[in-house]
């Protein structure tokens, strides 16, 4: 799966990009028709500790899924967002297989 990581208002390091790629590659075992993923990592200028936002957009044939999570770290946000996407992809797979 092709994963594009976009960092907004900061520069992203290789370790974080590798983590995102590795985590999103796991989504393919839930639904194998995922075309690509766009990951937007943002830092909000707030005094709150939970100012890291991970927005993941998954492209599958006929649909796009968008999940946005805000946490203290990007790793945690990506983890939560990908768990939400796992549930969405499993639902989609079940929906499609029930129509066949």
From TrEMBL:
Signal peptide: none
InterPro entries, alphabetized: RHF-like, RHF/RaiA
Superkingdom of this protein's organism: Bacteria
Gene3D superfamilies the UniProt entry points to: Ribosome hibernation promotion factor-like
Pfam families xrefs: Ribosomal_S30AE (PF02482)
NCBIfam families: yfiA
Full protein name: RNA polymerase subunit sigma-54
Upper taxonomic lineage: Bacteria, Pseudomonadati, Bacteroidota, Flavobacteriia, Flavobacteriales
């Amino acid at each position: 799966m092709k994963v594009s990581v976009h960092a907004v208002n900061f520069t992203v390091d290789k370790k974080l990009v590798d983590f995102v790629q590795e985590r999103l590659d796991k989504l393919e075992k839930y639904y194998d028709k995922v075309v690509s993923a766009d990951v937007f990592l943002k830092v909000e200028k707030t005094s709150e500790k939970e100012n890291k936002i991970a927005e993941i957009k998954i492209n599958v044939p006929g649909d796009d899924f968008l999940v946005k999570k805000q946490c203290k770290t990007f790793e945690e946000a990506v983890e939560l967002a990908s768990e939400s996407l796992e549930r969405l992809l499993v639902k989609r797979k079940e929906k499609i297989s029930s129509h066949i």
